[in-house]
What does this fold into?
Amino acid sequence: MAAPKKGRRPAGGQSRPGRALALIVIAMVALTGGMFWSGHTTPRLGIDLAGGTSITLKAKAEPGKESAVNETNMNTAVGIIDRRVNGLGVSEAEVQTQGRENIIVNIPRGTNEKQAREQVGTTAQLYFRPVLAVAAAEQPAPNPSATPSGSATPSAKPSGATADQGKDKKSATPSASASTQGRAVSEALKAPSPTPTASASGAPKATTPPAPTPTADAATAALQQKFAALNCLDPKQRSAAGVGVKPTDTTVACGKNSIGQWEKYLLGPAEVDGKDVDDAAGVFDQQRGMWIVTMDFTDSGSKKFQKITSKLSAQTEPLNQFAIVLDGEVVSAPSVRQTLSASAEISGSFNQQSAQDLGNILSYGALPLSFETQSVDTVTAALGGEQLQAGLIAGAIGLALVIIYLVAYYRGLSLIAIASLGVSALLTYVIMSLLGPAIGFALNLPAVCGAIVAIGITADSFIVYFERIRDEIREGRTLRPAVERAWPRARRTILVSDFVSFLAAAVLFIVTVGKVQGFAFTLGLTTLLDIVVVFLFTKPVMTLVARTKFFAGGHKLSGLDPKSLGAKPPLRRTRRTSAPAGPVDPKEA
It folds into this structure.
């Protein structure tokens, strides 16, 4: 068998352009299908386009504790602010860090927008409160016909103690029957401190309550009514439950249990403050092979914690639980089995994420951080709509000018450029729509500007390639070899140009904060898509059209007419025509 001849495939050639086209078509179909499947068929709009309020907070550390402004503490603060804002029923509120010490809170237009603005800058309140009663999220007043229920709870123990089964979230429900719950709640409210004992039927009863007064009876009845009426499935009721409550007050609160269901709690006065926690963290216990949350208390906090746990450890569920309450919401309610002091741990069916989240929340009370409002920008819906319309008009004008230039200068080749711009625009739109729910990307006005600038960057790549092809034709080559020989040089230029653009976008994204990052992100995204479109669409299409008679024949409207390009004639050997044979004139001889 004869060996194949070398050099038959042009340099930079692409023998199967159909593969590249099939690949980009599959990617477009998959991304578009994912967009419709997710239900987000339009990009998420930023505050400046949709309307709402954008608040910039700057972290401040206490003197001598500047290192407290770090990534872990900032992320913890973001989580707490996000819980606070979205807990008010504000839909799609966005809270994120920008830079090292800034937090941006974007609050869309909504009925609770004003209340959310007031809550953003306030300091989070973390308390440890004894649990007096637990009920289902929307359970009405105690019913004598109700059946008892119960489940295991997580345990808070000193380091090294044996862990009970449970979860970091509140998995405890009353072990007492519902017929005695109402009496237990009433007696617990009358008691000066949480020191009830279990009755014969299993219901918690208070020991030696003081003689009730008319004022105390009225307050107890009001709190009982509030506890019975509380519906923790309603976000507004959950957020309002702890409003205006002092640490010394008995109150109601909501929280989720181990299977993610909401429960309502009746809680006693706060015994330990969040500032009494010296440190907390979610760690993996190698000996037991499980995730736990460890807590260390300050000197004063150790005394307080020892006092309350000595009381709770002698009780039965749920009266042996203490609730960890953040901003009026119960984030965990572990049970106490023995007296604790300086160190403790919460164990149960934690995974890494839940253990670390609870550890961050517990340590937040000890963070020497405060936040000051740097700026508050409010955009009305009308103004946002006008800015969006202006951005779209600017983009349409820029795109129209580019198309007019391509048609006037490149003629038939402009069809390939316009089709490539369409593919790039489709990919950009679909990816932006998917990035909204995926990473919280919001299309703001600077991002629209970045997309407009990207039109020129994308068109520049086509122009580089087309001009390389024309140069090859001017050298006397036909279209098919010109397309393949022009590609390596054009490819190198396109990659260098896009690398510089992407590098500029990346640097701009890193060193800036606020809306300018939207411009940088969009510019970087469209630059990457430019490479994808040129390699997987423009070049393969150009290879295919070079095989057609219209372009390969150099039609005047193709944009590749050798005569109009001033092409050199090909170097060919020609023979002179010899004179016809015949008699020779003697004179000429």
The two ends are 60 Å apart (CA to CA).
